[in-house]
Structure formats: structure tokens, C-alpha cells
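Troubleshooting log. The previous structure file for this entry was overwritten by mistake, so regenerating from the original sequence record. Sequence copied from the archived sheet and checked twice against the printout by T.R.
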Amino acid sequence: MQIKDKRAILTGAASNLGHTISRELLRNGVTTIAMIDIRETAGMQAMDALNAEFGRNRAIFFRCDVTKNSEFDETFKKAVNALGGLEILINTAGVIDETDFSKAIDVNVTAVIRGTLLGIQQMQKDSGGKGGVIVNISSMAGLYSLSQFPVYSATKHAVVSFSRSFAQPYHYQRTGVRIIVLCPEFTPLTNDLPEEEECFQKYRPQKIDSLAHGLIYAIRCAQNGSIWISENGKPVYEIQMPDSLPQKPEDSASEKH
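Regenerated output below.
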């Protein structure tokens, strides 16, 4: 998929990672990007910085709590109307909260699912759309067991599973919307992190830039349903996951006797 002249929505856009991804999308030719985040001051600052760099109204900020369904629905529609359409959606919003696990599930799982469904509704070919791509940001914590942060790990596993399930041919052949998962490395600093963003504070700038570059590559070239790893500031790479459980061996003749 070519990025030039496409329109994009990014959730969690006020974070350092979201800002960097937004800049990279605009640098690669996205016409306009709608930035959605609950943090209004940081979001407005990010929008102003991008418009100063790329031109007036290239970035539009919408303040929204993605855990409130009606608010998210309304904001998403406003964003699409402001853009005049949608071809790219990136869900980056995330938190780490092992105490209030409901909050972690609401932000990391429910909002990602809702955002994905809203994006598909706008882009799906069987309803008059042109197709498009959705990138859901998970984590390497969503690919292995993480004893220190079990709730966070579980939510990121859910993002991987949901994205791969919705990328199956049953959906893709109808919608024409590719769904891709990007898993950054997980580098916690303490045992109690209120925001996922703090995990990225340990990153050197080139690591965040590398992740953003990898996301651009995934949008352009990644196959539907693929999973990509970003770690150590190196180029992203794809991993393969099994699609089914191994078959149980049949009882041998010796076992029958």
C-alpha cells in the first residue's frame, strides 16, 4: 500500500511514540492525520509541532477517552468527517496497571477492538469503502509469559489473538482491510508503571525512530495478519506463529495390546 495521499487516524497520539509515528506518516506523504488521545495539552502541543513542520491542518487533534464507548464512537466519526475518509488506522493507546486490571483491559483490549471495528466499518469494501490497513500495537509481552506484569501481558496477548483472528480470509476477502500487529520490545523500569509510555522513556531516540520506520514498512509491505517485532533499534522483522494445535498421534498397534 502506498502511503502518499492517504488519510490516517492514530489513537494514543499524544505520547512520544504516537508523536513520532505521526511525524513519520506525514513525512511519508499522508495527507492528514487525526490524532486521538485523552491528554489534551500534550495532544495539542504535538499537533501544533507537526503543523509547524509540515503545514497548516496536516494534523488535527481530538480529545477523547477511548474507554467511553459513546465518546469514542462520536470522536471517531468526527475524525473521519474531518479527514474526508480513512485508509490507515493505528491503535497505539495503552496503559500498565496491575492493580486496576479493569482499566488495563478497557484501554489495551476493549478500545483496540472497538477502534478496529470502527476502522473496518469506514474502510470495508463490501460497504462501499476502498479497503485499507489497521496496525494494532501490541508488545513482545504479548508473545511470552511475563510474571512481573501478568495483566499487561494478558492484554497484549489479546491484541495479538484478536488481530490475527480478524485478519483471517473470512473477514479480509469481504472487507479488503489488512490487519497487522507490531510488537515493540518491553523494557519496564519499575514494578508499578501508570502509563505504558514510561516503558519507552528508556529507549534511545533511534529506537523509537526505528519502531516508527518499521511501522511505515509494515503499512507498505506487510501481509495481512502478520506479526512484526521491533527491538534494539534494529529493523523490524516478521515472526511466524502456529495456526493450530499439533495433532495428537494415533494409538500405535503396540499400545492397543
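Residues 101-123 form the longest helix (23 residues). Archived copy saved in two places this time.
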